[in-house]
Every structure is written in structure tokens, then in C-alpha cells.
Amino acid sequence: MWTGLGGVAASLALAAAGPTGTSAAFEEAPCGEDDLQCSHVTVPLDRTGALPGSVALDVRRLPAGAAPTRTAFVVLLGGPGQVASASAPALAADLGGVRGDRDLVLFDERGVGGSGALRCPGLLRPSGSGALGCATRLGALRGEFTTAADVEDLEAIRVAGGYEQVVLYGASYGTKVALEYAAARPERVEALILDSTVTPEGPDPLQLSTFAALPRVVRSVCSGGACRGVTADPAGDVRRLARRLGRRPLRGRFVDADGRRRRATLSPADLLTILSAGDVDPVLRSAVPAAVHAALHGDPAAFVRLRAQLGGRDSRAAAAGGINRARFVATTCEETLFPWDRTAPPATRAAQAGARIRAMPRKRYAPFDWSTVIAAGILPLCVQWPVASPAPAPVTLPAGLRALLLAGGEDLRTPLEDAQAVAARLGPAAQVVVLPHAGHSVLGSDVSGCANAAVVAFLSGTPPGSCETVERLLDPARPAPRSVGSVPPYPGLHGRAGRIVTTASRTVADAARRRLSERVQGTGVRRFGGLRGGTASIEPDGLRLHGYVYVPRVAVTGIIPDDTMRPIELRIQAHGASGRIRAGGGRVTGRIGGRRISVSTSRTSAAAASFERDAVRGLAASPLRVP
């Protein structure tokens, strides 16, 4: 919360005195969430004194065990603007086991959550004009939400807690705060754990490291022959589609949550948006190779659906309190090193950025063109923002600090190459651990436990093991069939009835993937459209299909129960082959087109079993296996 200046000096003086013994000096009360303790640390709004006021930082602490040290394990989240307090119990559960005998400390950054949350309603749909409106609303305050301010706030929390040193775990933007703190106060840092590393000079508004990593990442999604039968050249497909979209936009249709078919027109910027969104959504990432390949060969349905699926996700996340958009914009627009003069008017800035990008070798941002570099990045968001703070000072990283850098091999927004570059600057005590099939935020997305084990080993002083052998969680999606005739019969069945059963199983799999994507992202979406028609709804007892169409002219209705002991019962509408099937107890039974069927599900392929085992983890383990 925001407060006046009264009492701030006294509070800070008490904080600086520190505690006696090993207990924290925060004036705490139970949060009512597990074993977390809540407190506030009051800091000046403007440490130069030019602006009055203070900020009460919302701090949460999970106490260490019986023999705590004078070192805190401090969590620094991403964004900027991610609300730590909203996910404090989950963070405590996830990270409590890796911190050893250290207190776990997390806090809402200034302007976020319980630390005086900024509000700019016009940013739910961010744009340049929305950012200008936010700057006007914030006034002179807009220059006080920088990484440098976060660094000083972190130091105030360290002092208030009486900690001699800190272990800093930063994720995404949090790595930038951690690195700047380490540069300012290396003697206070026991170790750095950097997850999805942003360079101290980042983020790069032109995303050049993203473009450089793109071919490698797309190939990684298909590595090990995973895209056999999908595409032989996934990176080439992306390159060809980007160039085709640059010549002529792609037009297609998608089905909305009400089952209505809607038109869509996609540009190269939309392709880049889809690729970038895959960083944090492994289900979407696994769907990209097939969707891109199909779009190149005349079937844009899956590709258009991916873009429609992303529409509104940022707004829903902001509305749900996950990211404070005003804080994100204030920090991003104030301190990003844009290719323009900070003091120039918007029109001049835009011209300077365009000239800078056009002067670059095309290969720096291939396969896209310069207009896509502008449209898909943060330049349009910040071009009208009137800066109120000096440009950030250069950061010199201290050599010799112990550091563990976690990198997802399929992360585009903070690619592996950035982590390697930062590790080189930190020196030989910095180690990089790569999870080959992880995206952005490695600890948050790794279900193998390898990254967690690497952190535990690192903090105990032993070399972290390699994670290179960790397998992908989800195989790439298949291309969506364009007719029943192109679908193979279900194993053990023949003719059209066998093709219809396979179509039903793949329809269930498609809907399950989409549900898994929404669950991974925590979007709160309860209903969505099928690939080519109908809808699906997420019910308390499972996933219900309402005339859901994955393969043209085959509509599937029924429920996939969460209770894996219950069977799947489906009604299928298809020309000349309608009917009902029941999948459970290791068999598929029913009647299709007047023909009685009964077949074992154990005869399906290993790939099908892999999908059931991995893709539907956390959903229902479907007894209708996918051939």
C-alpha cells in the first residue's frame, strides 16, 4: 500500500538495526496460508527525495527449520509485474524443498499486488495510446518503477530481515533484478539461481536473440524423429510460411466457444506471436509443426485456431491478477534500450526505429521482415511513452559469484544463448543446466524433477547433474485429417466403421489437448470450439463434447470423465456411419452404421499409448486409445 512520509525514517532506522540471534526481524503475523508469515517493509517512493511518499512492500516469509542460517532464499518473479502474493502458497510448496536451512522470502514489487498496486484500466488491451494514457494517469510517479528501485527495495528487505546474505532465485525479469543486485552488492550474495535469464541490458526490443534461436527451437520440438509423418523440415516450414504471409495474409476460419464459425486474417506477426506463446504452453508448442505444415498445404484450420486461442489470454491473466499491466508497461517503457532517442517525440521515435531496423542485415531477423520486428515487439507499446527517469546505467557483472543458470532448450523469449552469454560474463563459477524440451520458466514447468535436483545439488556445493536426457512431456500433434478417407481404421476393425472409431478417438485427443493447454495456462476457460465445428465444455466431472468436429463431417458428442474408472460414451454423427460407442475395461464396443463392433484397445500403437500417458496427465486417462 501507499503511505505518507510520516514515520518512514524511524521505520528504516529500526530496520537497519537488525535482529539479535537468527530469527527474522520482520514485524509479522500469520498469513493464514500454510506456514507463511506476512509483514510489510516500508521504503521511500523516491530515494532522491524529489517525490514525497512511501511504499509498504508486501513480504511473505516461510521460516526455515530448527537451525536457520543468516541467509535468506529470496524469490524474484517475472513480468515485470508478476504478483508474488497471489501464488505465495504454491511458490512456498514448490521452492520450500530446495532452500535448505534458509528462510524463504518473497515479496510483491512496488506497484504490484499488496505493494501499492498500480491501476491503468486502459491497458487490458495494451497499445501505444493505452500506454500514453497510463503514463498520464501515473504522472511523475511513472519513473519510480524501475529495476534499480527493485534492487534497493530488495536491500531494504534484507536489512529488515537481519540477513547477512541472500541466495537469489530469479525467474525471467527476476533474473535481471538478481543480476543488478549482485552487481551493486556482490558481498551480500551467497549465490544466484537464474531461471530463464534476461541479460542485464535486456529485454531486447528487437528480439534479435529470439530470431537467432528460432530455427534451433523449432527443430528441437521435432527432434528424435518426433515429427515423422508430420514434417521433414519444421524450421523450413516456418521459414516458408513467414515469407508467404509476408506476401499475402492467410485467411481462414475458426470456431468460437459458441460454436460459430468466424473469419480470421493472419500476418507474419501472428506467426511470431504463436511461436513465442509456445514458450509457456507446451501443448501449444507441440501443435505448431503440424499446424504450420497444414497451413502451407491448404488447410489453415489448426493454425488459425492457435491464434484465436491466444486472443484475450493476456487480458484474462491481467484481470485475474497474475500480471500487473501498469507495472509491466511502466518498467518496460521507462528502461528498455529502444532504438530511438528517449527525448524525441513519438513520430521521430518511430522513424528512428524503422531506419535502425532497415539498416540491419536481413539475416538478423529472418525469416521475418522489418515491419514484423516492429509490429510483434514492444516498440508500438512504448513509442508514445514520455520517460520520466534517466536511462539505465551500464551493469558490470561481478566475476566469481557462484551461479546456476537454468535454461529451457525450447525457450524463445529468453533463449539458451542468452544464458550462456551471461554465464560467460559471470566467470567460471557460473554453470548452465539445460532442459532440452522445456520452455520459459524451467522450475515452473519441469515435471521430471531434474531442474529441482540441480538446484539442491548446487546449493549443497556439489556439481549439478545434466538434464540433457530428460524426455519431452508431450509428443508433437498429428496433422488434422481433412477427410474420413484419410484416417486409418482402428486396429482390429476394417472399413468405414473402423475409420469412424479412429476419428472418434482422435477427436477426443484433440479436445483433451486443448483442455490441457487451458489448464496449464490457468486461463479459466470453460468452453471452447472444435477444430471444424461444435464445442467442448469443461464440467465438474469431465470434458463434455457437443457435436465436436475434428475431421470434417464427423460430429462427436459425449463426455470424457475425469474418473478413469468410468467409461467414455460417445454418440457419433457421420454420413452413413452414425452410431454410439463405449470405451472402457480395455475394449471399445458399440454400433457404427448398423454394424456391431467390439475390439480391444490394447492393440493400439506405442505412440498412442505415449499420448495417453503424457498428454492427458492431470485429466482423464482415456480408455479410448489413440491410434
From TrEMBL:
Keywords from the UniProt entry: Hydrolase, Signal
Gene3D superfamilies reported for this sequence: alpha/beta hydrolase
Protein name: Alpha/beta fold hydrolase
Domain AB hydrolase-1: 73-201
Family named by the database record: Belongs to the peptidase S33 family.
Pfam families in UniProt: Abhydrolase_1, Abhydrolase_4
Top-level taxonomy: Bacteria, Bacillati, Actinomycetota, Thermoleophilia, Solirubrobacterales
SUPFAM superfamilies cross-referenced by the UniProt entry: alpha/beta-Hydrolases (SSF53474)
Signal peptide: 1-24
Molecular-function annotations in GO: aminopeptidase activity
